[in-house]
Structure formats: structure tokens, C-alpha cells
Specification:
818 residues; alpha+beta; 3 domains; twelve-stranded antiparallel β-sheet; eleven-stranded mixed β-sheet; globular; Clostripain; signal; Peptidase_C11
Length: 818
């Protein structure tokens, strides 16, 4: 297909006005806002922020905007006209223009003016569409005397797999525009416009995951500087409203960088993750060459030394990573691996021989990596990312994909300039670990334990769970074949089932059985221990999990420390204990199913035992509420973001409260009654559904373990599980479980209830008494402040919210089990 000739698409535009009066201008800023998808709400906000910024009024700045709105013809459509945008005659837009718009800032009128609008629906993912806009805008900028050129692309980002995602229903297109197509469009526009530069001064992506080796591998030839985030971005995007006048494109990029990290974007707290970096594109290839040389040598090492191979696997597991291009709702370990974090982790676990070739190559790669950054940083509450990721999926992801999709496709050109890196991945994915440990291992740190396995296949050699005042430590020496290990905590509420098994089994749908294959989700590998536990446990049991715990490898040892917290999700009507996945820097992710406003459900839709697969068949979308413990005010967190997986593409993006709809928590369990095994409880015990909207009053309540178990009459311990995997052995799983009593947790269960403490046993369904919490949550306003408050004291707001929310949940459990 021939592209980038004399415009074929511009003929579909109604040209509204002649270009504005030519004036000398220095920086030409072009924004390609592809909002024909679920990000329109946020991109509209960005457009309005830019219009009201100080920078746009700078006489030396010429601004052009391409805007493609979403027009599904459904209730999700935004029908209002763009705010603070004017027609050529100076009147505000009276209605939403359904086609694509070319807009420019009129310095004389001080207005954002629609200069052209398409009369037909355009595909924002078509490189011809991008070319036409750039050629149109740059022609004007050249005429105005612009000397520097900056392009910002705003929409979904997929790193290696490109940018965009125009979802117009006429095309049913749900794929991103490939990076190489974008490169071709930009290069062609630069070449087609007389007087345009050979390269952009700055190329920026206000999109997820675009600060990636696998993306910049394409873009380094068309720009001097490259601005993007290596992680999923919060939906609010960049802080356009804080943009200040500047003299150069790089200064504008630095302004965007700093404000994105520093501003809360209208919220009381920072959304997470927020990471941003500016890269000198000329210094990227020296880094990529150094990275490629390093992994050429590491390919040799992992193929010949079991010690290095296992350290490499554990380093990958312990390295900071974000949800990436190949990740969907079944991802266990994210694939967008932070490069600087890998350097640090591998050095720590390996203790590289200082006289080795690996040390020389590692030092060179680290130096080149640091040198290419002009600026990089992270927002408050974001894990310590170092600026750029590379796609390194876990082995189970490779097993699902054709290798060519991940690393060999010429059309994607994932890392075409790093053939040794590709060869390393092929070796790492396809070859089993060598049997022998080299006598001259490049890793001076040995991961061979002095302990011997007590049985064939044992991976956990001396597992131990110990409770202290500061936390619960789960640790073990590991067999050298151990590649991965996970730790989960929960409560054993088997005692509540006594005499009620028949009732409970009849309550749960017959479809929730041990033989049913449920949809994959990020936690699924962690529930394989249910099958393992069945081999050692007798009788029926019920364990309700509260979350997982990040751990770290230390030589042949592994240790993870749980902070002894459980999490409840509730509002004035309902509450559920929820599962919280552990992240660095206090980040927690709470699994939920999201239902759009056009597809509402009722409690009858999700009876006890509903699986993720069944909820998805009702139109539910798997996702997470993300919260940060740093935002807790007396153990109550009221700030969160909802991220959901696109049902078709698997891309992860924020779903704003303005979208409306409902969320229902996804609990995880091991409930065994005869041949019935239940591992997923969508909606929890009460078929709980929370409204998702701007006026939702949902809170996440943090409850310490001792307080939590004291609410259950007869419960005096928590359960901590460790599950280890050997990826080279079929069914290579080892499992250990321990109970930690309240005294071992560093306290004891509460005594008789007082007026400020709910009854220790499950409350009856009768009305509350003086000893029970009130019928509604506490109404006192919590204290405010930028930092986390101290633990709640008896009678404090946080304490009363905690106990009231706990009582609502326990009541729901009681009504189901009794």
C-alpha cells in the first residue's frame, strides 16, 4: 500500500480557515491526541489543561493538535463539545464534532481554534493519518520560522507492540499502530515539508510503557531526545496545565517530566505508578551495544553453569518489573523489566568475579545506561524504577506465545539491533538448566545449600515461619533447582463450617468444582498449592487468603516478611475481606471485576462461589484497585485507581470513576468439601457489589492481624503458605504451610468485648446491641495530612471504621455459613 504521497486523507477535511498570521516562532509543538477509545475522558482533560496553561500563550510557541474523539453511539460516548475550543468565527463549539480535528492556538485571539475537521471517520492508527497531520502542521511551523520541533503522541502505549488503539466500531480495530509505521510516517513528513529538520528535537509519548528498549530501538533515528514512561501511566497523563514557557523543545520536555512526577493532577495524593525519563537518543545505541555484548557472554554462562542459570532465573524474579506488552490477566510476574534494577539484583545475587569478562561487560553496560539519561525520576509512592524497561517475559508467557511473536518478528523488530540479546532469550526459554555447577563459576556467590533434600523433588529444605512484633518471616534454604517461590497469608475458618457442610455445598453452584478449568489470572499459579495441600490434609477445610508477600533470595536462602496486615473493602452498606498483592514501596493491588454502566449486575448474578470465568461471561472485566499504604490516614485509604484489562487486546489502562459502573471484589480461597474445590469467590461472601463513580464512598481499611482474628470467636491464628517451583521439572512444586498464633504474632486475642469493640464472635443477624457497632459507619471525618498517620488508637476514627467494617464482613460470613 502506497503511503505518504500527496495527501489522500486531507481531501476529507473541511478546511475552515487560512493559516493564521505568520510570526516568528521558535518551538513547534505538535500533539497527536488519539482519543477514539476509552481514554477520551482523560485526553479531553489534557487538551483543556494545555489550553489553560501559561506555555501555550508564549509567543515563540506554535501549537498544533490532532484530536480524534470516540463515537461509539452508545451510552459510554461523551456528547459534549470540547471545552474552551472555538470555531474559526470565534464562537465556542456548540456541539461535539464527530470527526477528527486539526486545532491550533491563535495568539491574537488567545483561543484554541478548529482549523480543519474531517467529514468522514478517520483511523487514528493509520500512519497516513499521522503523516497528513504532521505535514499540515509542520508546513505552518516552517512558515512561522520555527527552529525546533516537538511531537507528543497521546493514547494507549504498548512498548514493543506500538501505540494507539482506535476503537471505532465501523472497523472493530483493536490493535496498536506498530512503532515502525510511526517512524515511517514521521520520517516521510520531515522529508516532505521543505524547511523541516532531518530529525525531531523531542519525541514524547503520553502513553503507557513507551520508555522501552524495544520501542526506542525504532525511534532513536528520528529524534534527538525521547520522553516517555517505562510503566503503565495513570489515566490523567501528563500535567499539561502546569506547562511553563520555555526557549527550547528540550526545556519543554523537562517541564513535562518534572510536573508529571511532582503534581497530583487534581487528586489529594499521587496516583501510581508514575515514572518518567528523557533519553539522549544518540547515546541509546552505545548502551544497546553494551547490553548486547553483556548478554552474549551471559548466554555462555547460563548454558554451562547451573549456579549462574539459577541465579539468572531468581534475579529475573526479584527484579522490579511493570505490567508489559505480553501481559494479560493471567500474568504472574510482569514482563516490562526495569534495566537498572536488573543490574543491581544480578550483582547482589551473583557476586560477580571482579576479574571476569562478565564484570567488564556489566560495568560497561551500567555506565552506558546511566550516560544516556538527560533526566529520570519517579513520583511519590512509585517503586524505584531507573528509567527504562526491556521486555523479558517469564517462561510461562513464552510457553503460551509463538516465540516469533515475542522476539523474532521482523514486523515488530523488537530488538533487531541486539541479536545476542535475542539469542540469550532463546537459550533461557528453550534450554533446561545445565546439570553441573562450574568449578570456575563467574558467580562467587554459591546458591548450593549445605542442607540435603529430605525427599525427591523437595525444593524447600528447611521451611520456617516465625512471628515477631515487627512481622512474620517466612524463610527456607532452597534446592538449587528452585526457580520461583511465593508466600501467601490468610485465615483458616474451617471451624465455622462444623455442622454446616451440606448447607454450604448446596449454596455454592455446582459449576465451582475441582474439575472446572477457570480463567487464568495473575494469581493462578499461587493456588496450585491447593492440589498440593490435598495430598497432606484430610477432611474438609476452608482457608480464606488475605494476600501475598514479596520476598528476596539471599544466596541459597529465601526470606519474605509479612507486615501482619489484612485489608477490607467497604462502604456504608457492605464490606469484604479482600486479597492484596504486594508491591514495592507500599503499593497494593486488590483484584476486582469491573462491570460497565451499560452492563449492570445484581447480587443474584454472582452467588457464592462465582468464578472469574463466570463473571467474565456476564460481561465483567478483570482488573485491580491500586492503593498505597503511604496514603493511609489512621488505617483508612480513600484514594485509589482502577486498572482494567481490555477484554480483546489484554492492554491494561485506568478506568476513571467518571466511566461509572460497578466493581465486585475477587476473593481467593481453598474451600474443600468432599470433591468440591473452590479457589475463587467473585463478590465474596455477600455477593457484594460496589458502585464505581465519582461519588462512590469506597474505602480500603487496613486491619492488623491480631485485631482481625480477634473478631472471630474461636480463631487464634493465621495461616502462612510457601510454594516453590522448579520450571525444568513437570509438576516441580513444593509446598509448606504453617499456623502462627496470636501470641506468636506479638500479642493476644482481645478479651471480652467493650462498648468500643464489636463482639469477638460472628454477630448474629439480629439488630446491633450496645456492644455491637452501629448500623452505619462512623461519621467523624478522619484527620487529613500528606503523610501516613500513626496506627489508630482505641476510640479513634480509624479504629472505629476498622471495627465497624470488620463486623459487616463477619456478618456476611455468618449469614452464609449459618
Amino acid at each position: 500500500m502506497k503511503l505518504f504521497g500527496v495527501s489522500s486523507i486531507l481531501t476529507s477535511f473541511a478546511l475552515q480557515s487560512i493559516w493564521l498570521e505568520v510570526a516568528k516562532a521558535n518551538v513547534c509543538m505538535m500533539l497527536y491526541q488519539m482519543a477514539d477509545n476509552d481514554l477520551e475522558y482523560f485526553i479531553r482533560q489534557d487538551n483543556n489543561e494545555l489550553i489553560n496553561s501559561a506555555a501555550i500563550r508564549e509567543p515563540t510557541l506554535t501549537t498544533w493538535v490532532y484530536f480524534d474523539s470516540r463515537n461509539y453511539g452508545t451510552a459510554e460516548d461523551i456528547t459534549l463539545p470540547l471545552e474552551d475550543v472555538f470555531a474559526p468565527d470565534g464562537t465556542p463549539l456548540a456541539e461535539k464534532l464527530e470527526g477528527s480535528l486539526y486545532m491550533t492556538w491563535d495568539h491574537t485571539r488567545e483561543q484554541m481554534v478548529v482549523n480543519a475537521s474531517s467529514t468522514t471517520e478517520l483511523n487514528g492508527d493509520d500512519p497516513q493519518t499521522l503523516f497528513d497531520f504532521l505535514a499540515y502542521a509542520m508546513t505552518d511551523c516552517v512558515a512561522r520560522g520555527s527552529t525546533e520541533y516537538m511531537l507528543i503522541l497521546s493514547s494507549h502505549g504498548s512498548g514493543m507492540f506500538g501505540f494507539g488503539g482506535d476503537e471505532n466500531v465501523a472497523r472493530r480495530r483493536r490493535l496498536a499502530q506498530a512503532n515502525q509505521n510511526i517512524v515511517n510516517a514521521v520520517q516521510s513528513a520531515l522529508g516532505a515539508v521543505e524547511g523541516a529538520p532531518a530529525k525531531l528535537d523531542v519525541l514524547g509519548f503520553d502513553a503507557c510503557l513507551m520508555q522501552a528498549v524495544d520501542a526506542l530501538d525504532e525511534y532513536h533515528n528520528i529524534t534527538k531526545y525521547y520522553l516517555a514512561s517505562e510503566a503503565v501511566e495513570p489515566g490523567h497523563g501528563w500535567a499539561y496545565g502546569f506547562l511553563e514557557p520555555a526557549a527550547t523543545a528540550l526545556e519543554y520536555a523537562t517541564n513535562f517530566h518534572d510536573n508529571f512526577l511532582q503534581q497530583t493532577q487534581g487528586s489529594d495524593v499521587h496516583m501510581t505508578p508514575k515514572t518518567m525519563a528523557i533519553v539522549d537518543a544518540d547515546l541509546f545505541i552505545p548502551f544497546l551495544n553494551a547490553w548486547d555484548a553483556l548478554f552474549s557472554q551471559l548466554s555462555i554462562e547460563i548454558a554451562n553453569d547451573k549456579n549462574v542459570h539459577t541465579i539468572m532465573q531468581r534475579s529475573r524474579l526479584n527484579t522490579l518489573a511493570f505490567m508489559g506488552a505480553t501481559d494479560t490477566s493471567d500474568t504472574n510476574t510482569p514482563s516490562a523489566m526495569d534495566i537498572g534494577s536488573f543490574f543491581e539484583t544480578f550483582r547482589t545475587l551473583c557476586s560477580i568475579d571482579p576479574n571476569s569478562e562478565v564484570e567488564t561487560l556489566m560495568a560497561a553496560a551500567e555506565t552506558a545506561y546511566t550516560a544516556m539519561f538527560v533526566s529520570r525520576g519517579n513520583g511519590p509512592g512509585t517503586p524505584p524504577a531507573t528509567g527504562m524497561h526491556i521486555l523479558w517475559p517469564q517462561r510461562q508467557v513464552y510457553d503460551r506465545y509463538d516465540l516469533s511473536v515475542i522476539i523474532e518478528s521482523d514486523s515488530l523488530a523488537a530488538t533487531g539491533d541486539a541479536p545476542n540479546w535475542i539469542n540469550f532469550l532463546m537459550t533461557f526459554y528453550q534450554a533446561a538448566a545445565p546439570e553441573a555447577v562450574s568449578d570456575n563459576s563467574v558467580c562467587l556467590q554459591s546458591i548450593i545449600s549445605d542442607l540435603e533434600a529430605t525427599a525427591d523433588g523437595s525444593l524447600l529444605l528447611n521451611p520456617e515461619v516465625v512471628g515477631t512484633d515487627s512481622g512474620v518471616a517466612a524463610s527456607s534454604a532452597l534446592a538449587i533447582g528452585t526457580d520461583e517461590i511465593y508466600v501467601n497469608y490468610g485465615i483458616d475458618i474451617t471451624f465455622l463450617m462444623e455442622g454446616r457442610l451440606r448447607h454450604l455445598k448446596e449454596t455454592i453452584p455446582s459449576t465451582a468444582s475441582a474439575n472446572r478449568q477457570t480463567i487464568n489470572h495473575p494469581l493462578k499459579p499461587r493456588w496450585e498449592n491447593a492440589q498440593r495441600r490435598l495430598q497432606t490434609e484430610t477432611g474438609d477445610y476452608f482457608i480464606l487468603f488475605g494476600g501475598d508477600v514479596l520476598g528476596a533470595f539471599e544466596g541459597p536462602e529465601f526470606v519474605a516478611t509479612w507486615d501482619k496486615n489484612f485489608y477490607l473493602l467497604g462502604n456504608g452498606d457492605s464490606a469484604e475481606q479482600v486479597y492484596a498483592t504486594d508491591g514495592e514501596s507500599g503499593l497494593k493491588s486488590i483484584p476486582v471485576m469491573y462491570f460497565a454502566s451499560s452492563n449492570p449486575i445484581t447480587a443474584d448474578s454472582i452467588p457464592l462461589g462465582t468464578t472469574i470465568e463466570q463473571a467474565a461471561s456476564l460481561g465483567g472485566i478483570f482488573g485491580f484497585l491500586t492503593v498505597s499504604l503511604t496514603d493511609a490516614v489512621e488505617s483508612v485509604i480513600s484514594n485509589y485507581a482502577l486498572y482494567t484489562f481490555d477484554a480483546t487486546t489484554g492492554a491494561l489502562s485506568e478506568t476513571p470513576a467518571s466511566a461509572g459502573g460497578q466493581i465486585t471484589p475477587v476473593l481467593f480461597s481453598e474451600l474443600v468439601i468432599g470433591d468440591l474445590l473452590v479457589t475463587e469467590l467473585v463478590g465474596g461472601f455477600g455477593s457484594t457489589i460496589f458502585p464505581w463513580g465519582a461519588d462512590s464512598d469506597i474505602s480500603v481499611v487496613v486491619v492488623d492481624a491480631i485485631t482481625w482474628i480477634s473478631q472471630f470467636d474461636g480463631l487464634d491464628s493465621v495461616v502462612v503458605d510457601m510454594t516453590a517451583y522448579d520450571n525444568d521439572v513437570q509438576d516441580g512444586v513444593d509446598f509448606f504451610s504453617a499456623s502462627v498464633t496470636s501470641s506468636e504474632l506479638g500479642g493476644s486475642t482481645a478479651g471480652p468485648p467493650t462498648a468500643e469493640t464489636p463482639s469477638a464472635g460472628p454477630p448474629s443477624a439480629s439488630p446491633p446491641t450496645a456492644d455491637a457497632p452501629a448500623a452505619g459507619p462512623p461519621t467523624d471525618e478522619p484527620p487529613t495530612g500528606d503523610g501516613p498517620a500513626a496506627e489508630p488508637t482505641s476510640g479513634s476514627y480509624g479504629s472505629r471504621v476498622m471495627l465497624w467494617t470488620a463486623s459487616v464482613f463477619i456478618l456476611a460470613v455468618t449469614l452464609v455459613l449459618f
